[in-house]
Predict the structure.
Amino acid sequence: MKIVLIVLDSVGIGAAPDAADYGDAGSATLQHIGETVDGLQLPTLGKLGMGNIRPDFPIPGISPAEKPLASYGMMQEASIGKDTITGHWEICGLEINPAFHNFPMEFPSFPADLLDIFSKQTGRPIIGNKASSGIAIIDELAEEQARTGAWIAYTSADSVLQLAAHNDVIPLEELYAGCVIARKLCDPLKVGRVIARPFTGKPGAYERTEDRRDYAYTPEEPLITERLKDAGIPVYAVGKIEDIVAHRGITESIHSGNTAESQKVVEKFMQKPGDGFIFANFIDFDMLYGHRRDPVGYALALEQTDHWLSHFLPKLGNDDVLMLTADHGNDPTFAGTDHTREYVPLLVHQPGKSGQPLGIRNGFYDIAQSVIDRFGLSELPRGISFFRD
């Protein structure tokens, strides 16, 4: 038996009840994309039941299926936050409360003593030191970095310290080493992630590469990846999952840098003999289109994944399970460039079994409890298994 859990990064399905607390009232990733493109063309997701999830708030272009192939519902996040780590860790069984530390959005964002120690240990000065989108701050400061050899350090609405570096100025391995130093310095503050953001190119034509790496805060209790691996169940990580779970409980990982590559890796791991848990993140929705506020590109990325799913579903065996969800929203029609606090969809496909309504799940950790339940392991402290429903 294989359980395949795919996180469609940032594919939200409407503002959560507490969205106003995050400045996100009115956000709705899927619905607003559908409105922008005059209807989403996602026949496979439609057959699975994506259009059945919210009859109160339809997704343009996706009608409810008469007999959905998957059980369907949506989940409300229990943790405080709307970032990648918070969402994925809650999916893995944790609740983040109190929240991770967020740096101020205005200059200076980072504590002076942290930057002083970091500069001394790395031998390079720092520029930036404010909140920004990645492309914008690279365009602004890349030439200064080339002159000075400085780190470009910036944050966002997430709990994150990001280090951007041109490959010709700061080699990739030095960038990674710098992130390891920054990670240790950020641990006392409980910062969710330190992210390496390498880029190449010339003025007016800079491009971020797919060599990004995330350095996560160490979880304070076991994730389901650890529980499964300790029980002898192989855990296969796809995309940035190994970084998000701080490399804990992983049997084998392939760090794919884009969604199409990750889809091929999922197929590869499906060929492994025996049982296994395949945990994948499809990153393009968030990285390329959500933050860059590109609803048309987002729609095309959804269509590509929908087409892939049409070929992947027949590869599932009778005992296998496919779960599709998201870690937060990122409405590309919304103000700003940050994630949005939204409900996330939940689709659970078991070949040969009819789909059932799963309702609104209070906590992403219902997924963790369900995975553990399906593999016959002892119950987790949080969550309700939807297999028992």
